Amino acid sequence: MMNHWIAVASAEHVRRGRAGGFMQVCHGKAAPLRRIKPDDRVIYYSPSEVFGSKDRFQTFTAIGMVTDEKPYAFDMGGGFVPYRRNVLWLPATEAPIHPLLDVLDFSMGERNWGYQFRFGILAISQHDANVIAEAMEVKLTVE
């Protein structure tokens, strides 16, 4: 059974991952990535455009499918060795979250909807994945 996830990272970091065909979460921790299985759908939400900024970008920035079996370490140099997963990123249009808040299961009626993103990754319903994909102009083939 395929699962659907929202991962959280700045737009600049997401764009780097899209270009390289990978994802990272929670500053490179492996444990959250172990929850994700091959063929799971991943959607990135970017609260900011630039890492550490308070710019309130609040946009879905990437959508794709995990293609590997497990997280792997990647040496980025300078002693930083984060864990990654390989992802087949789909061509998509970035979509702001605010127009979707009253429709998404995880945020409907929630005043503090952003609180759920504090862990860096969030399991979501197939309904939510489809709503976000449509906003990003992507057709998901989901069972």
UniProtKB/TrEMBL annotation:
Alphabetical list of InterPro entries matching this protein: EVE_domain (IPR002740), PUA-like_sf (IPR015947), UPF0310 (IPR022996)
Pfam families on file: EVE (PF01878)
Domain called EVE: residue spans: 3-134
Gene3D superfamilies: ph1033 like domains
Family: Belongs to the UPF0310 family.
Protein name: UPF0310 protein HYN46_13435
